[in-house]
Amino acid sequence: SGKIAALFSGQACDVTSIPVTIYTLGNGSNTNMQAAGEFNQDGILDIVVVNAGFNSITIFFGTDGGSFGSTASIATDFLPFAVAVGDFNNGTYTDIVVSNGYSNKIAVILALGNGAYATPINFTTGSEPESIFVVDVNNNNRLDVIVVNYYSNSVSVLLGFDGGRFAAVGDFNNDNWTDLVVTNNSGGTLSIYFGFGDGAFTNQHIWTVGDSPVWIAVGDFNLDNRLNIVVSTYGCHCVEILLGLGNRNFQRQTTVFSGYIDYACSTIVTDFNNDNCLDVSIANFSLNQLGIFLISCL
After folding, report:
1. Do both 107 and 169 map to the same domain?
2. Model pLDDT for residues 129-177, shown as the tens digit of each residue
3. Host domain of residue 52
4. Residue 196 and residue 206: Cα distance in Å, rounded?
5. 279 and 289 in contact (C-beta within 8 Å)?
6. Most exposed residue of 4, 65, 136, 285, measured as fewest CB within 10 angstroms of its CB?
7. Same domain as 80, residue 153
């Protein structure tokens, strides 16, 4: 029918003829994770994408209307996997952090302004770091980094301090403390850890999703001031949404965008076209593509 209908708390969000624009990164790039941020201080959102096959990251600089123009590439260590952004040195610019699975390290890349970046600074993690989350877990007004380590079945918490260095992610229950959610690829579940506000978390709470979940993002899609969880699942080649109730519970999952996705390796949500509705960006590993879905909720 050319439409995708997603149900949010009993109300229909009618997504009609979603315009998708494909940006190709080249054969063999193995397009992996992505993050959105303002990298050249022009007031327009940009996207940074991991190219595992090229050992690099690529920045797509945004233009008016939700499209993207020029690009810039930054070399990384061998086999980069995930990427996240934040201001790690309180320099007012958007910095970048990348996980490098082969070297068991993350690299912090500090911004110099106008889209330029400094030489990466490396920090050791567990075995094969994959997902990265940036948040102030201990409430000291400095960004910290949470890393999920695939082979060591562990989570590394690197606490940030002045200068953009490290010594070693939403509020799902509306208690003003940061919580953590992790995908369990082999089990088809999510583990949610609720934060106490001092860097400590509860034991895991398990939620079942589709087969082989690979990436998660959070956002308030139905504008009820409660965070929802978006998870891309390799098994069903789709993206699923868990609707947050604000009390450590979630409503039934809704499957969206199942027609386009091949290997949805990462998903981010943000408002690319300034219409006050969250949009979705999906990176496809096997297709070497980035898909931008501009969504209007009625």
Report:
1. no
2. 988 889 888 777 888 899 988 888 888 888 775 555 554 478 899 998 8
3. 34-158
4. 18
5. no
6. 65
7. yes
